[in-house]
Amino acid sequence: MSTNNTTPITGDPIANSVKFAVLLAFEIPSIITSSIIVIYIVVTPAFRSKEQNHSTCALLSFNFLQIISDIPLAIHFFHLNIVQPATSAHCILWTWLDFTLNISSLQLMAWISIERHLVIFSWNLTRRMSRLQQWFIHFAPLIICSVWSPIFYFFTIIVAPMCANTWIFDRLLCGLPCYLTTNWGYYDLIFNIIMPVLFILIANVALVIRVVKQKLSRVRPTRVDWPRQRKMAIQLGILSMMFLLGWIPLCIIQLEMIYCQSDLLIQVNDFIDCLLYFIPLLLPFIFLFSRPEFMKKFKGFLFGKKQATVIPATIK
Protein backbone atom coordinates (compact mmCIF):
# COMPACT_ATOMS: atom_id res chain seq x y z
CA MET A 1 0.00 0.00 0.00
CA SER A 2 1.31 3.42 -0.81
CA THR A 3 0.20 7.02 -0.64
CA ASN A 4 1.91 7.82 -3.89
CA ASN A 5 1.45 6.61 -7.43
CA THR A 6 4.71 7.68 -9.03
CA THR A 7 6.73 6.72 -12.07
CA PRO A 8 6.51 2.98 -12.44
CA ILE A 9 9.48 0.82 -11.58
CA THR A 10 9.41 -2.45 -13.48
CA GLY A 11 9.93 -5.38 -11.15
CA ASP A 12 13.09 -7.48 -11.38
CA PRO A 13 12.17 -10.95 -12.74
CA ILE A 14 14.77 -12.63 -10.51
CA ALA A 15 13.50 -10.83 -7.41
CA ASN A 16 9.94 -11.71 -8.36
CA SER A 17 10.92 -15.36 -8.74
CA VAL A 18 12.38 -15.34 -5.22
CA LYS A 19 9.24 -13.69 -3.84
CA PHE A 20 7.12 -16.27 -5.65
CA ALA A 21 9.06 -19.21 -4.17
CA VAL A 22 9.10 -17.79 -0.62
CA LEU A 23 5.42 -16.83 -0.57
CA LEU A 24 4.37 -20.16 -2.06
CA ALA A 25 6.41 -22.03 0.56
CA PHE A 26 4.52 -20.22 3.34
CA GLU A 27 1.15 -20.20 1.57
CA ILE A 28 0.54 -23.95 1.48
CA PRO A 29 1.08 -24.73 5.20
CA SER A 30 -0.70 -21.50 6.14
CA ILE A 31 -3.82 -22.48 4.17
CA ILE A 32 -3.85 -25.93 5.77
CA THR A 33 -3.38 -24.59 9.32
CA SER A 34 -5.84 -21.74 8.89
CA SER A 35 -8.46 -24.04 7.36
CA ILE A 36 -8.27 -26.43 10.30
CA ILE A 37 -8.54 -23.53 12.77
CA VAL A 38 -11.62 -22.18 10.99
CA ILE A 39 -13.22 -25.65 10.92
CA TYR A 40 -12.50 -26.05 14.63
CA ILE A 41 -14.10 -22.68 15.43
CA VAL A 42 -17.16 -23.48 13.31
CA VAL A 43 -17.80 -26.88 14.92
CA THR A 44 -16.93 -25.77 18.49
CA PRO A 45 -19.76 -23.64 19.93
CA ALA A 46 -17.98 -23.38 23.32
CA PHE A 47 -15.15 -21.38 21.74
CA ARG A 48 -17.46 -19.08 19.77
CA SER A 49 -19.81 -18.46 22.70
CA LYS A 50 -17.17 -16.63 24.78
CA GLU A 51 -17.40 -12.89 24.15
CA GLN A 52 -13.64 -12.40 24.46
CA ASN A 53 -13.16 -14.76 21.50
CA HIS A 54 -15.48 -12.89 19.11
CA SER A 55 -12.81 -10.37 18.08
CA THR A 56 -10.29 -13.16 17.56
CA CYS A 57 -12.80 -15.07 15.40
CA ALA A 58 -13.37 -11.96 13.26
CA LEU A 59 -9.62 -11.42 12.84
CA LEU A 60 -9.03 -15.07 11.91
CA SER A 61 -11.92 -14.90 9.41
CA PHE A 62 -10.50 -11.87 7.58
CA ASN A 63 -7.05 -13.47 7.73
CA PHE A 64 -8.38 -16.69 6.19
CA LEU A 65 -10.05 -14.75 3.38
CA GLN A 66 -6.78 -12.99 2.62
CA ILE A 67 -4.83 -16.25 2.56
CA ILE A 68 -7.18 -17.91 0.05
CA SER A 69 -7.88 -14.88 -2.18
CA ASP A 70 -5.50 -11.92 -2.04
CA ILE A 71 -2.18 -13.68 -1.51
CA PRO A 72 -2.70 -16.24 -4.34
CA LEU A 73 -3.18 -13.28 -6.70
CA ALA A 74 0.14 -11.82 -5.54
CA ILE A 75 1.86 -15.19 -5.95
CA HIS A 76 0.40 -15.46 -9.46
CA PHE A 77 1.76 -11.99 -10.29
CA PHE A 78 5.28 -12.79 -9.03
CA HIS A 79 5.24 -16.02 -11.06
CA LEU A 80 4.27 -14.35 -14.35
CA ASN A 81 5.85 -10.88 -13.75
CA ILE A 82 2.62 -9.37 -15.02
CA VAL A 83 -0.98 -9.05 -13.89
CA GLN A 84 -3.23 -11.65 -15.50
CA PRO A 85 -5.84 -11.06 -16.72
CA ALA A 86 -4.52 -7.61 -17.62
CA THR A 87 -7.83 -5.78 -17.35
CA SER A 88 -9.04 -2.78 -15.40
CA ALA A 89 -11.79 -4.84 -13.77
CA HIS A 90 -9.27 -7.33 -12.42
CA CYS A 91 -7.03 -4.55 -11.07
CA ILE A 92 -9.95 -2.78 -9.39
CA LEU A 93 -11.23 -5.92 -7.69
CA TRP A 94 -7.76 -7.09 -6.60
CA THR A 95 -6.82 -3.68 -5.19
CA TRP A 96 -10.14 -3.36 -3.35
CA LEU A 97 -9.73 -6.85 -1.92
CA ASP A 98 -6.13 -6.26 -0.83
CA PHE A 99 -6.79 -2.90 0.81
CA THR A 100 -10.01 -4.07 2.49
CA LEU A 101 -8.54 -7.21 4.04
CA ASN A 102 -5.28 -5.58 5.16
CA ILE A 103 -6.90 -2.58 6.81
CA SER A 104 -9.78 -4.55 8.34
CA SER A 105 -7.27 -6.89 10.01
CA LEU A 106 -5.19 -3.94 11.22
CA GLN A 107 -8.22 -2.19 12.71
CA LEU A 108 -9.47 -5.40 14.32
CA MET A 109 -6.04 -5.88 15.92
CA ALA A 110 -6.26 -2.31 17.26
CA TRP A 111 -9.68 -3.03 18.79
CA ILE A 112 -8.47 -6.32 20.29
CA SER A 113 -5.62 -4.42 21.95
CA ILE A 114 -8.08 -1.95 23.49
CA GLU A 115 -10.62 -4.63 24.38
CA ARG A 116 -8.09 -6.51 26.51
CA HIS A 117 -7.91 -3.51 28.85
CA LEU A 118 -11.66 -3.76 29.39
CA VAL A 119 -11.47 -7.53 29.94
CA ILE A 120 -8.57 -7.40 32.40
CA PHE A 121 -8.94 -4.11 34.27
CA SER A 122 -12.50 -2.84 33.75
CA TRP A 123 -14.53 -5.94 34.56
CA ASN A 124 -16.18 -4.13 37.50
CA LEU A 125 -17.19 -1.18 35.32
CA THR A 126 -18.72 -3.33 32.58
CA ARG A 127 -20.49 -5.46 35.21
CA ARG A 128 -22.47 -2.40 36.35
CA MET A 129 -23.62 -1.61 32.80
CA SER A 130 -26.93 -2.69 31.38
CA ARG A 131 -27.02 -5.62 28.99
CA LEU A 132 -27.70 -3.25 26.08
CA GLN A 133 -24.65 -1.12 26.96
CA GLN A 134 -22.46 -4.22 27.24
CA TRP A 135 -23.74 -5.44 23.89
CA PHE A 136 -23.01 -2.06 22.27
CA ILE A 137 -19.47 -1.80 23.67
CA HIS A 138 -18.70 -5.34 22.60
CA PHE A 139 -20.28 -5.55 19.13
CA ALA A 140 -20.25 -1.96 17.81
CA PRO A 141 -16.44 -1.81 17.35
CA LEU A 142 -16.46 -5.24 15.72
CA ILE A 143 -19.16 -4.18 13.26
CA ILE A 144 -17.39 -0.90 12.47
CA CYS A 145 -14.02 -2.60 11.91
CA SER A 146 -15.67 -5.18 9.66
CA VAL A 147 -17.73 -2.86 7.42
CA TRP A 148 -15.78 0.43 7.38
CA SER A 149 -12.92 -0.66 5.11
CA PRO A 150 -15.09 -2.42 2.47
CA ILE A 151 -17.28 0.69 2.22
CA PHE A 152 -14.41 3.21 2.23
CA TYR A 153 -12.40 1.39 -0.44
CA PHE A 154 -15.50 0.68 -2.52
CA PHE A 155 -15.95 4.46 -2.73
CA THR A 156 -12.28 5.39 -3.30
CA ILE A 157 -11.20 2.49 -5.55
CA ILE A 158 -14.27 1.18 -7.37
CA VAL A 159 -16.40 4.33 -7.61
CA ALA A 160 -13.38 6.72 -7.54
CA PRO A 161 -15.22 9.99 -8.29
CA MET A 162 -12.17 12.09 -7.39
CA CYS A 163 -9.88 10.87 -10.21
CA ALA A 164 -9.41 8.36 -13.04
CA ASN A 165 -7.41 5.20 -12.39
CA THR A 166 -4.50 4.35 -14.69
CA TRP A 167 -3.37 0.79 -14.15
CA ILE A 168 0.18 -0.52 -14.70
CA PHE A 169 0.04 -4.25 -15.38
CA ASP A 170 3.71 -5.03 -14.67
CA ARG A 171 3.54 -3.79 -11.07
CA LEU A 172 2.10 -5.40 -7.97
CA LEU A 173 -1.53 -4.32 -7.46
CA CYS A 174 -1.42 -2.72 -10.93
CA GLY A 175 0.45 0.35 -9.67
CA LEU A 176 -2.15 1.25 -7.01
CA PRO A 177 -5.31 3.41 -7.30
CA CYS A 178 -5.29 7.09 -8.16
CA TYR A 179 -7.04 8.34 -5.00
CA LEU A 180 -3.72 7.92 -3.15
CA THR A 181 -2.40 11.02 -4.97
CA THR A 182 -5.31 13.14 -3.66
CA ASN A 183 -6.28 14.34 -0.18
CA TRP A 184 -8.16 11.07 0.24
CA GLY A 185 -4.78 9.32 0.26
CA TYR A 186 -3.57 11.42 3.20
CA TYR A 187 -6.80 10.73 5.06
CA ASP A 188 -6.37 7.02 4.37
CA LEU A 189 -2.78 7.03 5.64
CA ILE A 190 -3.52 8.97 8.84
CA PHE A 191 -6.88 7.58 9.94
CA ASN A 192 -6.92 4.06 8.47
CA ILE A 193 -3.27 3.13 9.01
CA ILE A 194 -1.30 5.36 11.37
CA MET A 195 -4.03 5.72 14.01
CA PRO A 196 -4.69 1.95 14.35
CA VAL A 197 -0.93 1.33 14.53
CA LEU A 198 -0.64 3.92 17.32
CA PHE A 199 -3.60 2.35 19.15
CA ILE A 200 -1.91 -1.06 18.98
CA LEU A 201 1.41 0.34 20.20
CA ILE A 202 0.02 2.49 23.02
CA ALA A 203 -2.51 -0.10 24.19
CA ASN A 204 0.09 -2.87 24.42
CA VAL A 205 2.70 -0.73 26.16
CA ALA A 206 0.05 0.44 28.63
CA LEU A 207 -1.14 -3.12 29.15
CA VAL A 208 2.36 -4.36 29.99
CA ILE A 209 2.87 -1.45 32.42
CA ARG A 210 -0.45 -2.09 34.16
CA VAL A 211 0.12 -5.84 34.44
CA VAL A 212 3.62 -5.36 35.89
CA LYS A 213 2.41 -2.63 38.23
CA GLN A 214 -0.47 -4.78 39.44
CA LYS A 215 1.84 -7.76 39.92
CA LEU A 216 4.12 -5.69 42.15
CA SER A 217 1.21 -4.24 44.06
CA ARG A 218 0.26 -5.89 47.36
CA VAL A 219 -3.41 -5.08 46.87
CA ARG A 220 -5.06 -7.01 44.02
CA PRO A 221 -8.70 -7.47 43.09
CA THR A 222 -9.80 -10.83 44.44
CA ARG A 223 -12.02 -11.61 41.44
CA VAL A 224 -9.28 -11.33 38.83
CA ASP A 225 -7.32 -14.43 37.84
CA TRP A 226 -3.94 -12.73 37.42
CA PRO A 227 -1.96 -15.71 36.08
CA ARG A 228 -4.58 -16.11 33.36
CA GLN A 229 -4.65 -12.36 32.63
CA ARG A 230 -0.86 -12.18 32.38
CA LYS A 231 -1.00 -15.09 29.94
CA MET A 232 -3.64 -13.20 27.93
CA ALA A 233 -1.41 -10.11 27.88
CA ILE A 234 1.54 -12.16 26.60
CA GLN A 235 -0.59 -13.73 23.86
CA LEU A 236 -1.82 -10.32 22.76
CA GLY A 237 1.73 -8.94 22.84
CA ILE A 238 3.01 -11.63 20.47
CA LEU A 239 0.26 -11.00 17.91
CA SER A 240 0.59 -7.22 18.24
CA MET A 241 4.36 -7.34 17.76
CA MET A 242 3.91 -9.04 14.40
CA PHE A 243 1.55 -6.30 13.22
CA LEU A 244 3.81 -3.53 14.53
CA LEU A 245 6.93 -4.97 12.86
CA GLY A 246 5.13 -4.88 9.52
CA TRP A 247 3.15 -1.64 9.72
CA ILE A 248 5.45 0.78 11.58
CA PRO A 249 8.16 0.74 8.85
CA LEU A 250 5.45 1.26 6.22
CA CYS A 251 4.07 4.28 8.09
CA ILE A 252 7.56 5.80 8.39
CA ILE A 253 8.40 5.28 4.72
CA GLN A 254 5.08 6.68 3.50
CA LEU A 255 5.39 9.75 5.71
CA GLU A 256 8.84 10.35 4.21
CA MET A 257 7.45 9.92 0.70
CA ILE A 258 5.00 12.77 1.30
CA TYR A 259 7.90 15.23 1.60
CA CYS A 260 10.62 13.48 -0.40
CA GLN A 261 10.34 11.49 -3.63
CA SER A 262 13.15 9.14 -4.64
CA ASP A 263 13.53 5.79 -6.40
CA LEU A 264 15.14 4.36 -3.26
CA LEU A 265 12.13 5.21 -1.09
CA ILE A 266 9.77 3.74 -3.69
CA GLN A 267 11.77 0.50 -3.84
CA VAL A 268 11.88 0.27 -0.03
CA ASN A 269 8.14 0.90 0.08
CA ASP A 270 7.51 -1.88 -2.47
CA PHE A 271 9.68 -4.24 -0.40
CA ILE A 272 7.72 -3.45 2.78
CA ASP A 273 4.45 -3.90 0.88
CA CYS A 274 5.59 -7.44 0.05
CA LEU A 275 6.56 -8.10 3.69
CA LEU A 276 3.00 -7.28 4.77
CA TYR A 277 1.88 -10.54 3.15
CA PHE A 278 3.76 -12.43 5.87
CA ILE A 279 1.41 -11.08 8.56
CA PRO A 280 -1.60 -13.15 7.38
CA LEU A 281 0.68 -16.04 6.42
CA LEU A 282 2.24 -16.30 9.89
CA LEU A 283 -0.78 -15.33 11.98
CA PRO A 284 -2.34 -18.85 12.13
CA PHE A 285 0.91 -20.34 13.46
CA ILE A 286 1.49 -17.54 15.97
CA PHE A 287 -2.11 -17.85 17.15
CA LEU A 288 -1.66 -21.58 17.77
CA PHE A 289 1.69 -21.40 19.55
CA SER A 290 0.77 -18.35 21.67
CA ARG A 291 -2.31 -20.12 23.08
CA PRO A 292 -1.29 -23.47 24.60
CA GLU A 293 -4.82 -24.17 25.84
CA PHE A 294 -6.19 -23.77 22.31
CA MET A 295 -3.35 -25.91 20.97
CA LYS A 296 -4.30 -28.67 23.42
CA LYS A 297 -7.98 -28.56 22.42
CA PHE A 298 -6.94 -28.30 18.78
CA LYS A 299 -4.89 -31.52 19.02
CA GLY A 300 -7.77 -33.28 20.76
CA PHE A 301 -10.15 -32.15 18.03
CA LEU A 302 -7.74 -33.17 15.26
CA PHE A 303 -6.55 -36.52 16.55
CA GLY A 304 -9.27 -37.44 19.01
CA LYS A 305 -8.89 -38.35 22.64
CA LYS A 306 -7.18 -41.59 23.48
CA GLN A 307 -9.39 -43.93 25.35
CA ALA A 308 -8.02 -46.24 27.98
CA THR A 309 -8.03 -49.90 26.98
CA VAL A 310 -9.73 -52.14 29.51
CA ILE A 311 -8.19 -55.65 29.74
CA PRO A 312 -10.32 -58.20 31.54
CA ALA A 313 -8.55 -59.93 34.40
CA THR A 314 -8.06 -63.67 34.18
CA ILE A 315 -9.55 -65.53 37.14
CA LYS A 316 -7.49 -68.47 38.20
From TrEMBL:
InterPro entries: GPCR_Rhodpsn, GPCR_Rhodpsn_7TM, TAAR
Entry GO MF terms: G protein-coupled receptor activity
Domain of life, source organism: Eukaryota
Protein keywords: Cell membrane, G-protein coupled receptor, Membrane, Receptor, Transducer, Transmembrane, Transmembrane helix
Parts of the chain that traverse the membrane: 20-43, 55-80, 92-114, 135-160, 189-212, 233-255, 275-291
GO cellular component assignments: plasma membrane
Membrane topology: Multi-pass membrane protein
Transmembrane helix keyword on record: yes
Location in the cell: Cell membrane
Domain G-protein coupled receptors family 1 profile span(s) in chain numbering: 34-287
Protein name per its UniProtKB record: G-protein coupled receptors family 1 profile domain-containing protein
Organism: Rotaria magnacalcarata
